[in-house]
Amino acid sequence: MDSIGRDLICQASIFVYNEDMKSVQQILKNFNPVADKYISRDFQSYGIWLAEEMNDYKNRGMWIKLAKSNYRSVLEKAYSFVIDSNADNKIALFLWKLKQIKSAKDKK
Hints:
Blueprint: H1 3-20, H2 24-30, H3 42-53, H4 60-69, H5 72-83, H6 90-107
Helix pairs in contact: 3-4, 5-6
């Protein structure tokens, strides 16, 4: 991906990050060292959250990998698409939409 495309993606996702930004005090207040001892990065937390939302906790490694390797704005677009649907297999729909969004960005 060239730098122009990356800049456009970053500019498009700025509002998403500003809405979800938390202060360090809020993060530390919600941190439970007993339950969260293996989750030390934000992408790990988001991946676990996605796994729980999709009722796919046994494949949480896949969700953490997706959260690490993709922009959060792209994942949130795919997630909002899945939540709005009435599909039986939400995981497959999420992965399909993620692939579609990524291929659309590559074509631009």
